Amino acid sequence: MRALKYNGTWDVSLEEVDDLHIINPNDVIVDIKYCGICGTDVGIIAGTYPVAVKGVTLGHESTGIIAEVGSEVKNVKVGDRVVINPTYYCGKCRMCQTLRINHCENKFGTESGVSYDGTYADRYRTTSDFVYKIPDGVSMKAVTLTEPLSCVITGARKIQPSSMNLNTYVFGAGTMGILYTWALHLKGLTPVVIETSLNRLNYASDCVPQGVNIYSSLEEARTNYFNDPKAPLDIVVDTTSGLLEKLYPEMSCDGTYMSIGLKDKYANINVRELADKSLSIIGSIDSLHGSFLDAFHLITKNIIPAEKLVSHVIPLENYKKAFSILGCDIDSKSMVQPKEKNAKVIIEC
């Protein structure tokens, strides 16, 4: 079978590896159909998120078809279409028992595709606890977005608005920015989206909820939407991970700033203002208790039209092209401006 291996910064290769089969009674083997490219994958390859284990198979946002099941598996059978939860948790440690499964003390590292073999591959082995049968008639491409939406729901749960009339901003109109816009919209808020890339802005405009506006700059959003060049920042979701130091002084009293990007960057802030202005600075990652099933529900019931976000489907053997669409140029070992409209790029195995 084929697997896309991470060997170091800018060093990835499609390799032939041993086929996967059942080992334990609760195991399932999934023939991978689709695997979405995550910003985490781009960061691992480019070296801005240097946490992956060398030699690991990348990829974690995936759907597929059950190929083999262990003797104790009851919830799925061979031939079932499934979505995979890539974030292992034991259910028994202190973090799991207090419903913080994304920080399980017994998992190795973070998740599949980072700390252990993932799903840019023809096959994947997991247990029946981490696969969910996709209802008939529901698109496997749409359901591939369950894991990123699950991470978004984890973050959105932490945002507790005091009013539905708060000035709400999402910075970045990639997949995570669009999904956060939907999650905040479902909470009753009306976010505006800021995106500097014209290609992403144009694609996202057809994917966000009705009534949500996208602008190329904060200044444009303030002037054209809020009719106030100094409109306060009540809620900010920063998917770029780079704006805290710049935006912190402009946060309104009792404001909330959420950072969900995974790039190393240090910021200087005035901690007196943190208390004096009753500010909240929040980080969020991975799936929290119940968020994966919440995301699965929102997609399979078409409450969030996830398939609209899929801009490209590229075969596994053309993985370099798939990453280049997102500006990750593996051959030149550089990040470049994307040349095409894009949101979620999916690799087809």
From TrEMBL:
Alcohol dehydrogenase-like N-terminal domain spans which residues?
25-136
Q: Any idea which UniProt keywords this protein has?
A: Metal-binding, Oxidoreductase, Zinc
The record's section on InterPro entries has: ADH-like_N, ADH_Zn_CS, GroES-like_sf, NAD(P)-bd_dom_sf, Zn_alcohol_dh
> Listed GO molecular functions?
oxidoreductase activity; zinc ion binding
Keyword match Transferase: no
Q: Which Pfam families match?
A: ADH_N
What protein name does the entry list?
Alcohol dehydrogenase catalytic domain-containing protein
